Amino acid sequence: xxxxxxxxxxxxxxxxxxxxxxxxxxxxxxxxxxxxxxxxxxxxxxxxxxxxxxxxxxxxxxxxxxxxxxxxxxxxxxxxxxxxxxxxxxxxxxxxxxxxxxxxxxxxxxxxxxxxxxxxxxxxxxxxxxxxxxxxxxxxxxxxxxxxxxxxxxxxxxxxxxxxxxxxxxxxxxxxxxxxxxxxxxxxxxxxxxxxxxxxxxxxxxxxxxxxxxxxxxxxxxxxxxxxxxxxxxxxxxxxxxxxxxxxxxxxxxxxxxxxxxxxxxxxxxxxxxxxxxxxxxxxxxxxxxxxxxxxxxxxxxxxxxxxxxxxxxxxxxxxxxxxxxxxxxxxxxxxxxxxxxxxxxxxxxxxxxxxxxxxxxxxxxxxxxxxxxxxxxxxxxxxxxxxxxxxxxxxxxxxxxxxxxxxxxxxxxxxxxxxxxxxxxxxxxxxxxxxxxxxxxxxxxxxxxxxxxxxxxxxxxxxxxxxxxxxxxxxxxxxxxxxxxxxxxxxxxxxxxxxxxxxxxxxxxxxxxxxxxxxxxxxxxxxxxxxxxxxxxxxxxxxxxxxxxxxxxxxxxxxxxxxxxxxxx
Length: 570
Hints:
Residues 66-99 are annotated as: Disordered. The chain is mainly beta and 570 residues long. 3% of the residues lie in helices and 45% in strands. The protein has a 22-stranded antiparallel sheet that branches. The chain has a two-stranded antiparallel ribbon with strand order 1-2. Strands 14-15 form a two-stranded antiparallel ribbon. The longest helix is centred in the last third of the chain and has 5 residues, at 549-553.
């Protein structure tokens, strides 16, 4: 392994101290502790309080250990346990003050799921540490460094070092890499957030990654990266027309989209980074976000040598509304409604179309017109979304243009028994991605694509199957018996949406000859998360891809998969 590229900050792992005990329950500060598992409005008469804005109190049996605050890939229904508003605010969480949109995991605010430490340090708010009485952690002095006497100018430092290893019996259905491959990767992300009062801030973040192992393969720019700029932007904030507004200019991550459509490439070593401008406005119950980005070319193997990728573009508009809550039986349901346009242009393998045993290279420009409605009550949670994907595909060789007409549907819903010490979530996930025909090289393109790395574990831990020409149905079981321990079980069943189209992986269509039948296979899988302390997390994934008879007859292989992620964050 080229360990010379690993940042020295990794040595901080050896000096991490356990955090102070958080008490014997999951109860938020100031919450009622009379009856475990009861969810109560903070004040007022039951049924008249809108829990979208009101505080909730949840008490669950636990131990005096750090809380599992959020998963990087959580999504609105993916939390290990129900997160109340108080648990998502300082000092328990670091969500910014976005009013009603701070509720739950905070994803509805447009900056991804935010816990105490998360995948978006640029979206965390540590200003509460201005009060030194709030300091209770070894790293707190680095999270709020006052630069002026009144503390209105301050600096926040952030860091992450991740050790990831994974082994595969038959990588990518046996079509890539050697059997029994075992790989190892190190990633470092370290940044600084400079606040110059309430209206101006600068954020910068460095990235470095390396990979090695036995039977290794695919160590491209997403796995190996010399030290470079991952993010570097200026944000201007103000209040206009009754809204909290902001303008972010520069290189930045972007998480204001359903995570099953677009995410920040969390699992590979080098996350996605975009170059451009983003503007947002947040009113009491309505939020708007508009953006225009081009990609980042990370393929150069030199320090600080990334360039703008003008051939890749992402732009769009998102509107999120927080409707008043409504009654369903004895419970109040709070929810959010997203309406969005996500447009993009890509070339290369992401845009290529399979045709018989060849590939049609070209450029595609597509527009996703869609919605997502998500929310929940004390005992159940849901998320449902759909979109139409239009656009065009231009063939490189001849310049021939073909229209795109594709679609997708995504839903997950389940029951959560808050009073139980196991804090179980029992649900069902269903997904549909349209397919087309790989037997034609003309006419409308019907295959849906999501080229910008959707949430890795949303469909399948192995990542062997991509969201194209796919029908997926899976039970979901999640148990969180302790504040520091969570388990999840899934078993997605996969079918091709169109038997005239191929099976797709993350690098495009699989070259499987004489593929028959619609059933692709089933992937029983489990994950175990251990929150060792505030800064150390160990997550392990295990799965077995069981291919269908048709898949194996066409040359695909079944195989086992294991992955371990050991992460240090501050």
